Structures
1.
Amino acid sequence: MTFTFKKAAFGGLATLGAVALLAGCASAPEESDEAGGGEALDYLPCMVSDAGGFDDKSFNQLGLEGMQRAAEELGTEYIEVESAAETDYPSNLQNLVDQGCNTIVTVGFLLAPAALESATANPDVEYVSIDDTVDQDFDGTTDAENIKPIIFDTAQAAFLAGYLSAGMSETGAVGTFGGINIPTVSIFMDGFAQGVEYHNEQKGTDVQVIGWDRAAQDGSFTGGFEANDTARQVAQGLIDQNVDVLLPVGGPIYQSAAAAIRDAGRDIALIGVDADVFETDPSVGDLLLTSIRKGIDVGTYEALVAAGNGEFSAEPFIGTLENEGVGLAPFHDFEDAVSDELKTELEDLQQQIIDGDIVVESYLASQE
């Protein structure tokens, strides 16, 4: 595990994307009047990554960027702790409690059990849970009053990506695979499949989704969130089934998919997740059709600025298409390849989802 204690350096942050968390289950707090560089607050925000690490070009990195921006605005320091394995989670959280952290952000679904244990033992510490409601007893509510969930109904944006992929496919097969079959991963894959199905219904096509079975709620998984040979082999298995669009869901595993695509020697488009991967990792930019974007950076920033100003709220935030908490990234190098007709259809579909005329199924849909 790696500990870092530093003053926020705003100049090194990635610029915020077009996604802005404007509203949600809870209203977004107003920006603080206190600018960075002023008298430091008696407030210390902290963050624990999951095993993917802060350089995952994905959700851990976005969470860290959100905390850095909040610390800069508040004029305070921050602590980041990188987990090398799941076994690090409890000790990392305890170390942050021992260092006097006021708000601890946990990044990822797999941190939920350790976050709940820490939050229950330390009721005076505020917790922000990215990507999980921390509802370990499955009663529909967060299990501790000092935990704020920041979660995203990415199925809505993935639906659009699925429809887009079906419209772009020339082989009639698109693929997806994930790190581990957990809700925050499968929600992408299932939404993607729903979008393909909708395209088939509307257009009379028969595009197949390889790697995810909606009925079984299971599919192709690597068993972790590392860019390794296993992830490359899973991607290759889908490529061998003639897919020409590939959606890997699980932090850095997209890097293994990109390597397999380059080795394939044919046109296969890649879809990123969480961040606009074209911006976070230009090395794969030429392969990226789009990315399914989550506003993790903005959501984290908003929650920590509120907490730093004494306005912490445990009310959940759920990112949707309506509040711009989720969405598709620009097409970038594929801008000219996507027809104007398909672009118009995607805009219409997005509005229909926002209006409730099209219902995208997900485990979060009932909570919005």
2.
Amino acid sequence: MKDKTGPAPDAAVTSADREHSTENSTRGAYVTGGGAYDRDTNYIEDRITRDGAPGANGEPGWQVQAGRYRLIAARACPWANRAVIVRRLLGLEEAISLGQPGPTHDARSWTFDLDPGGVDPVLGIERLQDAYFKRFPDYPRGITVPAIVDTASGAVVTNNFPQITLDFSTEWTEFHRDGAPQLYPGNLRPEIDAVNRRVFTDVNNGVYRCGFAGSQEAYDSAYARLWAALDWLEERLSTRRFLVGDTITEADVRLFTTLARFDAVYHGHFKCNRRKLSEMPALWGYARDLFQTPGFGDTIDFVQIKQHYYIVHEDINPTGIVPQGPDLSGWLEAHGRESLGGRPFGDGTPPGPVMPGEEVAPGHGAGS
């Protein structure tokens, strides 16, 4: 592990969170009084690659192998949701199994409370922290998703979620389905990377900087940056169907998971309330276009999303009341984005039906 500038996934709590937890909180504290939110960016940087070579900084090497690894990804978490979408778009379901913790957690760890007996059926553990402690007995940081676990040893391999999805695209090609899209094409990588940097800093993490701000000054600054970026995206997407090029790429996956949670959570819970997503024509049409594309909307569980944020963030929502709204039926309305051209999957094809057992529960999706 080493410090590295970049995003970090949702955690049960970080070590800093633990310092600010109170005796009355079972889930940890997320807001530091008087300060701006500073996301913990220290994650396990191991990679799973074709040749399994050690990393440039001496990280252990792990070799691509079908059936060896299990992706742990809670439906509620936007960072984990990305890995689920990319796995599905590329057709890696048979090569990499999926474990899904429930939407809430306590101050220690995500738990497998949705599985029979509260135990992950492959790893045989009740808490994700068990896989972290198997690898690092004194692991000091947040127990985060997504995480990839080596099923043979039961030890966590990596929680470096920005790299996980890129490696799915570039290192796991042997196991891609026929017709898998090019989500990280070589000729577009510089532009994808540039767009991703701004989207992460000001949008993906920007909503958290608003929601977890510990002062009016910190909130005002985060709010201004968020809306400057959303205005930039609204303009960009008014003349192009996708963020980069004329097909779906990694950049679209990364933006989508924040947009899918915007009206349901971030607008109210995180005070990102200048406008709703549904009041931004280009972004709303773009989000619906992706939502209605196989591999995107069929991974979104709005019930779990709302349960996670409104129940876990006790210091923001101390009553734990989960709102009934908003009306989600609009996600299935026609978007009209086809008029901008573009080919969602390029020369590839859409993924097939969701694997049995991985479906969003009835009543938890849009239009329910």
3.
Amino acid sequence: MGGHISKQVEKRKSISTEKKTLVDLKESCGCDFPGADYHPSDRKNWMAGLDLGKLTINKIVWPGTHDSATNKIGIPFISRPFAQCQSLSIYEQLVKGARVLDIRVQEDRRVCHGILKTYSVDVVLDEVEKFLSETKSEIIILEIRTEFGHDDPPDFDKFLIEKLGDHLIHQDDHVFDKTVSEVLPKRVICVWKPRKSAAPKKGGRFRSAGYLKDNWIDTDLPSTKFESNLNHLADQPPVSSRKFFYRVENTVTPQPDNPILCVRPVTDRIHGYARLFIKQCCERNIADRLQIFSTDFIDADFVNACVGITKARIENI
């Protein structure tokens, strides 16, 4: 018992120290970066507010959501706080400005997060369709994967084609160098990551797992995650020479060795440092590697930061 308490005390000290590290870094270097002052007048149509003839797919810093379809997962006030990473619906996230969705499914096509499940993936796709019908120039990256420990939904690729076929941007390595105006009217880049079924083939309507990569760091320590994200990003080639998407997640994750297991208070340790992260990318000369930037509980300022650095890229600021 004494050993357990001692570990808890040390863990709390580590968390406090790491939180202070980020506070001190923010105070010492600030959060100013090219495009930092830009605020899109309409986040629902923020791509349309940029120069679509200059906005190539690889120059976009894509604001994304982590575990996107968890707004109604589990039982309210009981299991939901342990798995909910977004409070907004898929449609509301897209209106807020999110352009990358992270969807996990199980064999019955229901969205899940670990052992907890929520509504059918049809809800996700219907809300994507609603958003697409209300906008004209917004491109979405839709990542759908079979959750660990589950089987793939039967004939899921055929199901996705039935739901999204007219919107899907076919797999093509040249797409990264194309402008949004060249890609339109197609609107959805779909990455399908089955666990047991055959991976999508080149040239088809879907992209395989190799087209959206990340380095997941499973920690609840904010400075550890922050620095690890920077180090892994530094190892990536610049977006101009990459033929895949690379994601950085501005999140930390509850751990079983800490009494705080609810997602929100844990991920809040890093949530407010998205602008600091972009600033550090610029300071360390790795801003040309930043591409997909995801978060829990997406908000307007996170989107503004991603859109601002995107605007600066296409204007060569």
